[in-house]
Design a protein that fits this description.
alpha/beta, Rossmann fold, two-stranded antiparallel sheet, about 230 residues
């Protein structure tokens, strides 16, 4: 069944860097939406570090999110560009002699929006991850602007997260990107430092911590927020 794209609710999951849990959090959110009976889809514009079986590249991140969320999608249909080399998208594309076309990404995004009421878009790397660095400089933050969606910032809940969250939030704000909230991944409820990170981040950057995800948990503590409040309408 197709849905009117103007009614689609979208959120872009960005992160303070690589391996902070963007894919994991995307899967957890997708699972929560499905459990709530909501029609959810997923989109990853560029993916590096795919694995190959029988000469076919498989987008592992997409597989995880779609499987975890029990989404009605095929992993290869949820991504515009797949690279086997686990490096920045701009470098992976350069090594293959491929030019990443933002208009293909925008077209794929539009098609996915037609199919779902809620769409989770997951970035690659951090918010400044380069997508193109040739004649044109095109970063992940530029793509977020072109997609026209708000963000959820994913960060590790532990040591060093205050600094990385503040720097990422500052970059986003200066470029007119709205961060609706922050989700802390691998959160330890019994650790005083983790609890203090919540207070410190909210005080220093004035952005709410809207979710906490414990290590290896497929559930999210939304801290009183509604799941649908994380998404931006269009």
């Amino acid at each position: 069944m197709s849905y009117n794209s103007c009614m689609t609710q979208v959120i872009f999951i960005t992160g303070t860097g690589t391996d902070v849990g963007k894919t994991y959090v995307s899967g957890v959110l997708a699972r929560a939406l499905t459990k709530a009976g909501l029609n959810c889809g997923y989109f990853k514009p560029v993916l590096s570090g795919a694995y190959t079986v029988d000469n076919i590249m498989n987008p592992g991140d997409c597989e995880f999110v779609i499987k975890t969320g029990r989404l009605n999608q095929k992993p290869t249909e949820a991504v515009s560009y797949i690279f086997e080399e686990a490096v920045s998208p701009h470098l992976a594309a350069t090594h293959l002699g491929i030019e990443i076309d933002k208009y293909k990404i925008l077209s794929d995004f539009k098609e996915i929006k037609r199919q779902f009421d809620y769409v989770i878009v997951e970035g690659a790397g951090g918010i400044t991850c380069p997508i193109k660095l040739d004649k044109t400089i095109y970063l992940m933050s530029d793509l977020i602007k072109d997609l026209g969606t708000d963000c959820i910032l994913t960060a590790d809940g532990g040591l060093g997260t205050i600094n990385s969250v503040l720097l990422t939030a500052d970059w986003a704000v200066k470029r007119g990107i709205n961060i609706r909230g922050i989700i802390l991944n691998r959160f330890k409820y019994n650790d005083k430092m983790y609890k203090d990170n919540i207070k410190s981040i909210e005080k220093l950057c004035n952005i709410p911590i809207v979710g906490l995800v414990k290590d290896k948990s497929l559930d999210i503590d939304l801290r009183g927020y509604k799941l649908t409040e994380l998404f931006s309408g269009e």
